[in-house]
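Appendix B, Record 12. Input sequence as logged:
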Amino acid sequence: QVQLVESGGGSVQAGGSLRLSCAASGNIDCMDWFRQAPGKEREGVAAIAYGRTYYADSVKGRFTISKDNAKNTLYLQMNSLKPEDTAMYYCAAGPAARMCGGSWSSPNLSRGYWGQGTQVTVSS
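Logged structural output:
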């Protein structure tokens, strides 16, 4: 069983930056960031696996996903934040992740590994 613990969320003004971290209890090839805003479905934001990255159109050019394998830690650098980026951000790994068979359009919370989330609030 893999445990994921997110950190780094907070409140920031529009145009600001935050860096999220996700500490994993083991090294996993596929890891993603998802987010869920109030009243909305959970959606995939960024994915990393096997040297490749993938981004949702809404964050492309503003967010950067990276992974430190030595520390078993996933990161999400978020720049030029917008109020619509306000959401709970979740780390997902293994079969939950896009490049290991997971779904961004209909994420299955019973599949793979999920963290508890970290809140990001962007004010205008």
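The longest strand covers residues 18-24.
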